[in-house]
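Bug #2210: token dump truncated for Terminase small subunit?
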Amino acid sequence: MKQLNERQRQFVSNKIAGCTNKAAALAAGYSPNGAAQAGDRLMREPAIRAALKAAGKNTPAVDAKPSNTPKMPRAKYADPVAFLEDVMNHAELPIAMRADAAKQLLPYKHARMGETGKKEKAKDKARTIARGGNKFATKVPPQLTVVRNE
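Reproduced locally. Full output below:
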């Protein structure tokens, strides 16, 4: 059997962890522009297919064995956000999986700039006017002082 280089071993270990061909190729260090093609090409190589088959039989063909796959903190998840947070913070998962989970979690945690609707913009504009943001703001009343004529 042909020896796998380091990137091919990383590709195989990411495939064993459950990544798609493209995600496994990205995690192994292939270019983002050609990761899908690289993943497809790698899956056609006999040495990689043999390594995946051997890993499926629990033989030590690659560094990561299916028996050593990391376990999630909880058995079941009712909330997808909690699942993505656990994947993102799991130190034993491949960095590509963790980064992908962080990307998918972003819309739930942070809104994009300019991604507010008409009503939110109107409320913000009214708030700035009320706080003295332009000429229509409420004026500060004059200070009252006591004047004594003695």
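Output looks complete on our side. The chain has two domains: 1-67, 70-131. Marking as cannot-reproduce; reopen if the truncation happens again.
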